[in-house]
Write a structure and sequence with these properties.
By secondary structure, the protein is of the alpha/beta class. About 55% of the residues lie in helices and about 10% in strands. The protein has 3 domains: about 140 residues, 3-Layer(aba) Sandwich (Rossmann fold), CATH 3.40.50; about 60 residues, Histone, subunit A; about 80 residues, Crystal structure of tRNA isopentenylpyrophosphate transferase (bh2366) domain (Helix Hairpins, Orthogonal Bundle), CATH 1.10.287.890. It has 14 helices and 6 strands. A 6-stranded parallel β-sheet has the order 3-2-4-1-5-6, sandwiched between helices.
């Protein structure tokens, strides 16, 4: 186990966290969250964030590290995760990366290119925001995060605005600062495993049941409290998270409670499908059942 980190990937509601906690009963683990929603403080119920009891049993890292009115990115997560993993190894413990944010895993294993490849989901989100707010507003956003690029890009040059914002959201760094940089390797060995549910219908049912449980636990009130404590907008990454996006629309009166539930469950199922597609692209991953044997 010396000098090696492990990763457990899988779609939402597949049981990753439960498996990790069971393994922690046998192995001196520390869990490194690889979840783009659990990084946000206050996003608890809708992200299935580990509670105080679970964190007391097993140390969890990269949870609750940024306020929901701020942005976070794959590049920033990689920059945060690598030193955390090295610290865990330095303590003689086993780092287990657990999550379903596949873009984060891709960034971890390969680094992020100086000019990352286009990402269809990120571009779709930018286009949707442009349709709602207008390209001048997105150019103004670019001016805030990357003033050098904004100075070079005309407010009417939608393609270049889109690309510059895409790079920012994928890497957490301005396009103007990435020119000439190269991808970085990992200072430790990493072995990855995939938890792939065999019964997709059962997974879909678990997704629906879990969202109903989130609603029963007070998800709508949680989002309402976040809106009162922070200067949030619907376009912020935290509020674009599946589940939170639909609750926001409900609180705005845009959809009914029944529509909120239906759309959130459907969006979560679509997320699971995309995660499974990502998993198939990581050909080096082993089945999750082999994970426990790797510690022996």
């Amino acid at each position: 186990m010396a000098g090696k980190a492990y990763a457990l990937l899988g779609p939402t509601a597949s049981g990753k966290s439960s498996l990790a906690l069971k393994l922690a009963e046998r192995v001196p683990l520390e869990i490194v969250s690889m979840d783009s929603a659990q990084v946000y403080r206050g996003l608890d119920l809708g992200t299935a964030k580990p509670g105080a009891a679970e964190r007391a049993r097993v140390p969890h890292h990269l949870v609750d590290i940024v306020d929901p009115d701020h942005s976070y990115s794959a590049g920033r997560w990689r920059a945060d995760a690598v030193p955390v993993i090295r610290e865990i190894l330095g303590r003689g413990k086993v780092p287990l990366i657990v999550g379903g944010t596949m873009l984060y895993y891709r960034a971890l294993i390969g680094g992020l290119d100086a000019l990352p490849q286009a990402d269809a989901e990120v571009r779709a989100a930018i286009n949707a925001e442009a349709a709602e707010r207008g390209w001048p507003a997105l150019h103004a956003e670019l001016e805030r995060v990357d003033p050098r690029s904004a100075h070079r890009i005309a407010p009417a040059d939608t393609q270049r605005i889109q690309r510059a914002l895409e790079v920012w959201r994928l890497t957490g760094k301005p396009l103007s600062a990435l020119q000439g940089l190269t991808r970085a390797g990992l200072p430790f060995a990493l072995k990855g495993f995939a938890l792939v549910p065999g019964d997709r219908e059962a997974l879909a049912q678990r997704i629906a049941e879990r969202f109903d449980a989130m609603l029963a636990a007070g998800l709508v009130d949680e989002v309402g409290a976040l809106r009162s404590r922070h200067r949030l907008t619907a376009g912020m990454p935290s509020m674009r998270t599946v589940g939170y996006r639909q609750v926001w629309q409900f609180l705005e009166g845009e959809i009914s409670e029944a529509q909120m539930r239906e759309q959130a469950v459907a969006a979560t199922r679509q997320l699971a499908k995309r995660q499974l597609t990502w998993l198939r692209s990581f050909r080096e991953l082993e089945p999750a059942e082999n994970l426990a044997h790797s510690f022996l």
